[in-house]
Amino acid sequence: MNRWTWRFERSDGSVVTDVPESTPEWFPAQADAESWIGETWAALRESGVDAVTLLEGERVVYGPMSLHPPA
Which of 26, 52, 62, 71 is most buried as measured by Cβ atoms within 10 A of its Cβ? Predict the structure, then answer.
């Protein structure tokens, strides 16, 4: 079974590890991961996350994807 996870990043590319406690460790499907980020991106941005990258296992699916509005 593949596990889908989000990597949380700052604008400089460093990984954010201090995300809200309610953040799931992994998702069973890509759609679950994408639905979750769609519901929580604003709260993540407020907690210091600037971008996210979706991973399937160790493989990067896409990202980094900014959580900020286009400039």
Answer: 52
